[in-house]
Each structure stands twice: as C-alpha cells, then as structure tokens.
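Example record

Each entry pairs one chain with its bound ligand, S-adenosylmethionine.
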Amino acid sequence: MPNLSEAPPSLCLDHAGIKAWLREMEPANLEVLWAAADRVRQARVGDDVHLRGLIEASSHCIRHCLYCGLRAPNEGLDRYRMNGAEILDCALEAVRLGYGSVVIQAGEDPGLTQAFIGEVVRAIKRHTPLAVTLSLGERSDEDLLAWREAGADRYLLRFETSDPLLYRRIHPSLPGIPSDRFAQLSRMRGMGYEIGTGVMVGIPGQTWDTLAFDLLRFRDFDMDMIGVGPFLPSPRTPLGRPEAASFFAPPEEQVPNDELTTLKAIALTRLVCPEANIPSTTALATLDRAQGRELALMRGANVVMPNVTPVAYRARYEIYPGKACIHETAAACQGCLSGRIHALGRRIGKGPGGRLKSDCKNEPASDLHH
Ligand code: SAM
Ligand code: SF4
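Structure tokens for the complex follow.
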C-alpha cells in the first residue's frame, strides 16, 4: 500500500488507481480529486443543474431485495398505487415548476401494467414537453418496447453491484427468471432508450475491489446517467438487522456507507464518465441534510431529482427511514433547491437535459499525474 499521505495516487484511472483514490483519506490529496471532478464536470456538461421531477408511482413490489424497505415480505407497509390522473397531475406540477423531465419510479409492480404505463406516458407526452424516464425495475422486452413506442425516453435500472455473487445474495431472482440487469440495460439501449444505472456505496459485502470494478463498468457501458448514493440500512430489511453481520466483508475490505466515500465515488464517476448525467442523490442528502446535495454538485454531479409525489404518498414510499424532503411540497422543494443551486454559482438547466455527446476522448485529468 503506498503511503498516501506523502503523495496522492496518480490519476491513472485503472482498477488499481480507482481503488487507491477510493481509499484515499488525506484531505490535501482529496482536494486534488474534488478539483479535477469539478473541472471535468464544468468542461463537459457545463454549469447547468438539471432538475428531474421524481414521481413515486407505486410502493407495491414483488421482489425480495435484502436492502430495500419496499420488499414484498414487508407486510406492515401501507402500500399505494397512483392512478393515471394523479401521475399526470404530478407531471403537470413538474412543468409548472420549470422542470424539463420526470422520472416515474416504483417498486417492481405487475399492477403497473404495460397498457397502464403506456397510457400514462402517452398522456404526459400529449400534455407536456417533458422527457419521460421510467424506473420500474425488471420488465419484459414487450413492456419496454411498448413504453418506448409510447414515447418514454429513458430508463433507470441500477445494477447495484458488479459482483455477481453479492448481487445474487442481495437481489434474489424471481422463481425461474434469473435476474440480469446488465442484459436488460443492453437491450434497452438497443431499443433507443437513454440508459441510467448506478450502485449503492457501502452495501454489506461490497469491497473496495468491487466498487472500483463498478465504476469501470460505468465506463465500459458508457452509461448515460449514473446514480451513486450511500446504502442506508432499513430495520425493515435483512441488511438493516443484526443478521446483516454475516454479509460484511473483513473490515479492511468492507466499503463504509459514509458520505466521504460516496463523494469520492461520485467524483471518480465524473472522471471515468465525463459526459454522463450524474445526480446528487436524496440518499446523500439524507446522510447530510445541511450540505450533502451541494457537496455532490461541487464534486461531479449535475442533476437533482426533486420529489413531485403528493406529500400524502411520500412517507409511504419508505425505501429507508428518515428520507430527506418527504414533508415539503413540490413547490417548497423547488424553492429550496433553486436557492441552493444559485448559491453555488450554478444555473438551473432548461429543457429535457439529455445526455450530451461530444467527439472528444476522455482526457479528464492530465494534470493529476505526479
Ligand atoms: N424497483 C426499482 C428498482 O429496483 O430498480 C426502482 C425503485 S428502487 C427503490 C430504486 C433504487 O433504490 C434501487 O435501485 C436501489 O439502489 C435504491 N435503494 C434501495 N434500497 C436502498 C437503501 N436501503 N439505501 C439506499 N438506496 C436504496
Ligand atoms: Fe422492489 Fe426495487 Fe426495492 Fe428491490 S429495490 S425491493 S425491486 S423497489
């Protein structure tokens, strides 16, 4: 292990380089990483911060993910599914607030049928200029194609971890249907979706090696959108209870689910994927309500996803406890966020804010070599 306090690792962003940066703790060295990520963000995606209105359309879910409070076995939840008019109202509210796109997110809910979501997407497209992103879990190609034809522009599906063994443990397949999120991401790209993915930082069993490989996967797949947020344990889940102890990697290998590690992962994601849209996540804002959003925007992120779900539903979409911004109305969120964004000297992006593609090759941080 190099003595990181004497010299920062070079920014050769191969697996060893990324891993060394993820483990870096020296504040002066980290300043170099933050500055590089911010510079690349500004050069490649500019000062605009794109706002995507998040619509949490259903808290029903058939899956048993060991990390998520919406998992099917949780019987105590007061589950809901919004109707089409309610979802359209949320989209209209997003337009009133000046947002250029909405994200319709939900548990993996067969009650959100192909026909229902197709009709919702068509209605939003008919009545608004919004780009529409779906994040509805693992769905059949027939569903995905039908929604693309209805006008859906983007799809978010985090691969959660690139370690196949860990993935199978924390994200059990449905009977007879092996879960392969990478394959679905590839097929969706073929269908013409902009594709988004991401991982949680510090999930029990995630090692430094694995997280470094996750970031390389973002680059290999040239992901359009990449969400990286901390894992926040929920006592309603196996990974939030004492039984999670058996999942943890040895202490020197286990990635912590803290703010600093998440910020390093975001900054490195910007360096390996200079043109991706990278959100400052609500999970990070939950860990650090005072400055989590701002720190991510200063260290590589260029997107925020303010919640436009009716307040009455928000607390019922409990992925993890204590989620930030669940009591504020959509308008209050907008006011708070635009103040924070302007205070950073950044602008609110206009329009759908899709993936920019330039011809330049990745040359993110040449002056970071030593
Ligand atoms: N059901 C869809 C899916 O799984 O892709 C979309 C909704 S799911 C709640 C969205 C994301 O929440 C997941 O991809 C996961 O990364 C994140 N998530 C779930 N449980 C979490 C937790 N305890 N802490 C932080 N993020 C979590
Ligand atoms: Fe369901 Fe998604 Fe939560 Fe898994 S992460 S339990 S698929 S809502």
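The pocket of S-adenosylmethionine (ligand 1) is lined by residues 67-68, 70, 105, 107-108, 135, 137, 157-158, 160, 200, 229, 231-232, 234, 283, 319-320 (CB under 6 Å).
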